[in-house]
Automatic annotation (TrEMBL):
This protein's UniProt keywords: DNA recombination, DNA replication, Endonuclease, Exonuclease, Hydrolase, Nuclease
Naturally occurring in which organism (per UniProt): Streptomyces griseoluteus
Subunit and interaction comment: Heterodimer of SbcC and SbcD.
Family, as annotated: Belongs to the SbcD family.
Its biological purpose: SbcCD cleaves DNA hairpin structures. These structures can inhibit DNA replication and are intermediates in certain DNA recombination reactions. The complex acts as a 3'->5' double strand exonuclease that can open hairpins. It also has a 5' single-strand endonuclease activity.
Identification of the protein by name: Nuclease SbcCD subunit D
Length: 387
């Protein structure tokens, strides 16, 4: 069976101030053409179809167009909700849409109920695990206290239990939206940290033939059977070096995996430039970036006059201008930035307690801080669901 694995469309999202709807529509056209030209048997979309819980009308219309075009090809599509989606909204009408071959999986309770498709070698069971917010789904899985690993492990227990009851030789595909250990993140993914831990080990998915992951925006291979497709478009300058693509995956009769990366259309290249304003304006080696979307970081000791107008004269598609003067290592601004770099909210809060009190929080206080951050995250998630 030949699968096309994609995720993280983020329909309705802008890139800085640029409306990306046209580029997203171009990607949908590319997706449909690929399904047709490469004889794809099933499409899997691993979450974050939309960029927010209540997407703009134009994004909903584009999604509707995508569903009609995929259904028109007669090729089954399996989709799950991601952490940006409203699972309830995305799942509206799922029962009716299912009859057209578009299978929306947004309910955690159905984690062990697959979409079963068949090819010449037998059945392939597709299990959709929508994004599992631990605080909201722990009761569904009868867990006293939950993190990302525990809720995913519980969902996968249901998957393996169902698979064990199926005919020998049934192949299996799991769609999941999570941060799996070994994956490389970018700046454009929403933080899903719970209890100080965001990542889950790839071993939680043991026992299935292919795991189609969503959430991280870079296309990457965790293992031969566990892969991220990444987002089809760049949504932050941290993705400037990404090669945007999808996975074309073949499952043979025994469930062995072969995969090929298929490039996605690039609306405009990205460039991250750094230097003084005069260096950026005068360096002939930068000519190749004059048609790119540009993030320019100025290192001048003193902020230059009219920097955006001057940089845009050479790089007319400049979208971001950052002022980061070169400073001595002992400069207070440098040392503060270094202390914060790469630290989680939990770690910053613990550092603050240590700074104002003169002693780091003890184990009980650390747990109180962790519970507070988890409560805020859960409240935010519940508000998204209620909207």
């Amino acid at each position: 069976m030949r699968l096309l694995h994609t995720s993280d469309w983020h329909l309705g999202r802008a890139f800085h101030r640029v409306n990306m709807l046209g580029a997203q529509a171009e990607f949908i056209g590319h997706l449909v053409a690929t399904v047709r030209e490469r004889a794809v048997d099933a499409v899997v979309v691993s979450g974050d179809v939309y960029d927010r819980a209540v997407p703009p009308l134009a994004a909903v219309e584009l999604f509707d167009d995508a569903l009609h075009r995929l259904a028109g090809l007669g090729v089954p599509t399996v989709m799950i909700s991601g952490n940006h989606d409203s699972a309830r909204r995305l799942g509206v009408g799922a029962g009716l849409i299912d009859r057209a071959g578009i299978h929306l999986r947004t309910d955690p309770a159905a984690a062990g109920t697959p979409v079963v498709l068949a090819d010449a070698h037998g059945d392939v069971a597709f299990y959709g695990l929508p994004y599992l917010e631990p605080a909201l789904v722990k009761d569904e899985f009868a867990l006293p206290k939950a993190g990302h690993e525990t809720v995913l492990a519980a969902a996968m227990d249901r998957v393996r239990a169902d698979l064990a009851g199926r005919a020998p030789g049934t192949r299996s595909v799991v769609l999941a939206h999570a941060f799996v250990t070994g994956g490389e993140a970018s700046d454009s993914e929403r933080d899903i940290t719970v209890g100080g831990v965001a990542a889950v080990p790839a071993g939680v998915f043991a026992g299935v033939d292919y795991v189609a992951l969503g959430h991280l925006h870079g296309c990457q291979r965790i293992s031969e059977r566990v892969r991220y497709s990444g987002s089809p478009l760049a949504y932050s300058f941290s993705e400037a070096e990404h090669r945007k693509s999808m996975w074309l995956v073949d499952l043979d009769a025994e469930g062995a995996v072969t995969a090929e990366r298929l490039d996605c259309p690039v609306p405009r290249p990205l460039a991250r430039l750094r230097g003084t304003l005069e260096e950026l304006l005068d360096d002939p080696a930068l000519s190749r970036h004059e048609d790119a979307w540009v993030e320019a970081t100025l290192t001048d000791a003193v902020r230059p006059a009219d920097p955006m107008a001057r940089i845009a004269a050479r790089f007319p598609h400049t979208l971001s201008l950052v002022f980061a003067p070169d400073r001595a290592p002992d400069d207070p601004a440098v040392s503060y930035a270094r202390r914060l770099a790469g630290r989680s909210d939990q770690q910053i809060a613990e550092d603050f307690v240590a700074h104002v009190r003169g002693a780091a929080p003890d184990d009980r206080e650390t747990e109180v801080l962790r519970d507070a951050f988890d409560t805020v995250r859960a409240d935010d998630a519940e508000r998204e669901v209620a909207r």
